[in-house]
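Subject: CPBP family intramembrane metalloprotease structure
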Amino acid sequence: MRHDVSARAVGAGTPLRFLPYALRVPQRPFRAIATGWLTAFPISMAFAALGALILPQAEQPQFHVNGLAAIFALVLFSPVVETLIMGSVLLVLLRFVPPAAAIIASALGWGIAHSMVAPMWGLVIWWPFLVFSILFVAWQRRSLLLAFLIPMCVHALQNLIPALLVAYGARS
């Protein structure tokens, strides 16, 4: 079943048009989640690896939790809280600027916010937040509930492997 929410994909005719169609048009929730994760995670990990190669002494984010607390904090709590904040800010931005500008501002804002904790982290995290933001903007045209849930799910998947490493792996 197709939902004709708009004739144009989010980001059409903008620098965001290179992003996958499944992110920009609210048609299939599970495809959007899978495409979102496949678009966000590998590229952000490549940015992290490149950053570690170029600046090996760069400060990394520190998480003072482990075990199930780390899983809860990084896979449940953080995606829920950050998506609620991101979506609320995007809804305000969309009243004043075009969707592409709101999406880019959101991603840059999240990159800056995470850079305040660890500068390299912000350089890595802006990309996933670009993906989360475009998903939010696309899906809010169809359903506000899905606009929050779909990026939240992608965010949780984005954090899953790092959360497992924080919780149970990579001990110093």
